[in-house]
Amino acid sequence: MTEDSVIKANLAHQRAMPLTRLLDCGMDPGDARRLHARISEGEPWDAVAETIATERLQQADRAEAEGNIVTAGEARQRGIAALVYAQMAFNFDEPRKVALYRRLVAACRKLTPVFGLPFERVETGYSGKSLIGWLVRPASGSANGTVILFGGQSGWGIAYLPIARELARRGLATLLAEGPGQGETRIEQGLYLQAGVEAAYSRWVDVILDDPSLGAPGIWGNSYGGLWAARTAGSDSRIRACCVNGSFAHPAILPFRTAFEQSAAMIGTEDRAMIEAVMEKLRFDPARDRIACPLLVLHGGADPLVALEDQQPFLDAATGEAALRVWPDGEHTIYNHSFERTALVGDWFAARLDRSA
C-alpha cells in the first residue's frame, strides 16, 4: 500500500473501531490508545494491532510458565482482543486476514487452561459442514440458561468474550456463535449468509437443549446479528428470551465502501443484485414474523447507522413482553455504555432463563 492509501485506510478504521469499541471487546486501555496513536502516525492498522497482540501473548506465555495463571489469562485475553481488531482491517478473506484469524483461533485454544472459567471450542453440523463457536460456562460448569451471542458483519463470536464473562457471573453460559458469513464458519467451512439463516442459529439451540447442564436457550444479536436473532426467535419457539441490539429490520447495503465489502464477503459474492436479493429475503416483517418470547431492544440515540425506526418492526412483532431501552448518546450497539448495557441485558436474561422460573 502507498503512504496515502495507508492513511486513508487508517482513517476508515478509526471511524469503524473507535476507542469505545476497542475497550468494549476487551482491549487494554493503554493498548487501545497506543493503537490509535501509532496509526495516526502512518503505521498500518493491522501491523500495529498484531504487534500489540504479540506482546500480550508473549506476556501470557511467560506468566503461564512461571505459574502466574491469573496474569496469563488476563494477558491472553488482551492479546486475543488485539487480534480481533487486527483482522478487522480486512473485509474480504484475503491471505493476510485468514492468517490473522487463524492466529486468533490458536490464541483462543491456548486460553482454555488459564481463563478461570470452563471454556471450549464447539462445532455443530449444518448444511453438510460445521458451524463454529466458543462455549463459556459459569465456574460451577452448570448454567441456569445459555445465551447464544453474536455480532453482524464484522464483530464475530470471540469478540464478545468480555460479555460472556459477565453472563457467567450471573449463572449463565454463553455460546459465542459464528454463523454463516462469519469467522471460522465462513473462512474455514465456506458457509455464507443466505436466506433462512435462522435455521443455522436453531442448530445452536439444539446444542444447548442436548446438554441438560446448559439450561434454557436465549439469543442476543448485535448490529446485523440482531436481525438474525429476531428471525430465529420468531421461528423457534424453544427460545426463551431475545435481545436485539442496534439492528435493521430491513437490511440493505449501506452507502459506503466498507459496508459493501463486508456484505459481499458475508454473502460470498460481489454481485450487488445478488446481495440485495439475499437481503430482501432476510427482511423482518411484523405482519408475518412474530416474536412470542420476551423481547428486549437496545438503541443508541447517536448511532450513525441505525435509526430507532429501523428497529420498530421488532417491537411491533412482539406478542408478549417487550421492552425498549434507549441511551440518548449511545453509539452503535452501545459501545460507549458497555457496563450499563451488559449489566442490564445480563440481569434481564438471568431473570428470564432462570431454571426455577
UniProtKB/TrEMBL annotation:
<dbReference type="InterPro" id="IPR050261">
    <property type="entry name" value="FrsA_esterase"/>
</dbReference>
<dbReference type="Pfam" id="PF00326">
    <property type="entry name" value="Peptidase_S9"/>
</dbReference>
<dbReference type="GO" id="GO:0008236">
    <property type="term" value="F:serine-type peptidase activity"/>
</dbReference>
<dbReference type="InterPro" id="IPR029058">
    <property type="entry name" value="AB_hydrolase_fold"/>
</dbReference>
<feature type="domain" description="Peptidase S9 prolyl oligopeptidase catalytic">
    <location>
        <begin position="218"/>
        <end position="353"/>
    </location>
</feature>
<dbReference type="GO" id="GO:0006508">
    <property type="term" value="P:proteolysis"/>
</dbReference>
<protein>
    <submittedName>
        <fullName>Prolyl oligopeptidase family serine peptidase</fullName>
    </submittedName>
</protein>
<dbReference type="InterPro" id="IPR001375">
    <property type="entry name" value="Peptidase_S9_cat"/>
</dbReference>
